[in-house]
Amino acid sequence: MIVTLSMAWRNLWRHPRRTALTAAAIALAVMVLTFFFSVQVKSYDMAINASTGIFHGHFQIQREGYLDDPEMRKIIPSVNQLRNELKKLPQILGASVRAMGFGLVSSADRSYGAQIVGVEPEFEGSVSNIPGVVIAGSYFSSNEDVGIVLGEVLARNLRVKLGDELTLMAQGYDGGSVALALPILGIFQSGSADIDRGLVQIPLGLFQEFFGMPEAGHAVVLRVLDRSKLEEVGAAINKIVESNNRQLVTLDWMKLMPGLNESIELDMSAGWFFYIALVGIVSFTILNTFLMAVLERTKEFGIILAVGARSGLLTRLVLIEGFFLTILGLIFGALLGALVVGYFGEIGFTAPGAEEVLKKWNLPGRIYPEVSVASFSSPMITVLIASFIALAYPAYRVLKLDALTGLRGGQR
Fold first, then answer.
1. 253, part of any domain
2. What is the three-state SS of the chain?
3. pLDDT per residue as tens digits for the range 293-344
4. How many domains does the chain have?
5. Containing structural domain, residue 153
6. Are residues 197 and 268 in the same domain?
7. 3-state helix/strand/coil string of 201-234
8. Are residues 130 and 207 in the same domain?
9. What pTM value is reported for the model?
10. Residue 252: inside a domain, yes or no?
11. Are residues 146 and 210 in the same domain?
12. I want to staple 375 with a disulfide (CB 3.0 to 4.6 A). Which of 38, 150, 181, 244 is the partner?
């Protein structure tokens, strides 16, 4: 075996320029795949963290059917007890109760429909970044506050400013109409036009009193420490939820924001077309290199077969040569990929027109890719598999070669 490996390595450098160019093509493909895969994965991670951090969280506990049909009466009773149990899980970064309704928000001369959300001021900051993006006034300091916080776009549409009074009109838990006049305590700018246009928040205690649903809420919002462990955390959450109330369900971010999940899947599919095309070019380069090598050495193979060698030995020799060449390209490609990813991880990466796309996902204009196991292993495994597929035909020609045909230079 050692002799075969030594022969394969020597044969590989019979044509050093051709070998170097093929290895460089493999390295370039691995570098490009690693870089773009790192950018893609990081952009998805940033999109998920940014989108879940605005309002939805990584998980929400709701009454079954509330997501599709958010009726006021689909409440979670004794919701504070459930929140306290969930907060004890080691992977939970934050947990907060919310109560939600829809109503009319009116200023002196204008009215708009909006989602009215009751929040826990002491816990909301652990699941949402809205408390940290108040651009005028301040967020609620306690559950005893009496006032309203609303989005900047809605405030502009209503032509109101800090300290002005707004009237909330909605349907209460018992089905009757309720109305409440509140001063504006704060105006936020989340970066999401939909949220800034259609969301108002009031303290949870005030909401429960206003809508007539004491000690109840519509959702427990959760954020986790490590998003890679969502499945594990989700299973632990489910155990607690099912032990409290069989009518409750645990919803992850993919169910809460299906549009974001579909956008990521669509973008990944489009990316794979580019990756497959690049890998295909590299595969044809490898195929060309070894097909030429086999054709050039046909007489040599014929002589070896004539003295008693088996065609299987020659086939194995060609495959080992291909393996050496591929590994050589993969190593240099991985090193180059690490350097490029590390460089752009420091200064950031952007492309013309990317700012508008990133803005839709509430992301900054630059992406900072990171070196990760997935971003390196996936391109390398893909290129390795593609190279062996490309080697199949040259290896098959050698396997079917007989001594007489080989001595004639491949002509029967």
1. no
2. CHHHHHHHHHHHCCCHHHHHHHHHHHHHHHHHHHHHHHHHHHHHHHHHHHHHHHHHCCEEEEECCCCCCCCCCCCEECHHHHHHHHHCCCCEEEEEEEEEEEEEEECCCCEEEEEEEEECHHHHCCCCCHHHCEEEECCCCCCCCCCEEEEHHHHHHHCCCCCCEEEEEEECCCCCEEEEEEEEEEEECCCCHHHHHHEEEEEHHHHHHHHCCCCEECEEEEEECCHHHHHHHHHHHHHHHHHHCCCEEEEEHHHHCHHHHHHHHHHHHHHHHHHHHHHHHHHHHHHHHHHHHHHHCHHHHHHHHHCCCCHHHHHHHHHHHHHHHHHHHHHHHHHHHHHHHHHHHHHCECCCCHHHHHHHCCCCCCECCCCCHHHHHHHHHHHHHHHHHHHHHHHHHHHCCCHHHHHCCCCC
3. 777 777 777 777 777 778 777 888 888 888 888 899 999 999 999 899 988 8
4. 2
5. 65-246
6. no
7. EEEHHHHHHHHCCCCEECEEEEEECCHHHHHHHH
8. yes
9. 0.77
10. no
11. yes
12. 38
One domain, residues 196 and 314:
no
Burial class, 223, CB count within 10 angstroms (exposed 0-12 / middle 13-18 / buried 19+): buried
Q: Are residues 317 and 171 in the same domain?
A: no
Average pLDDT, the chain: 86
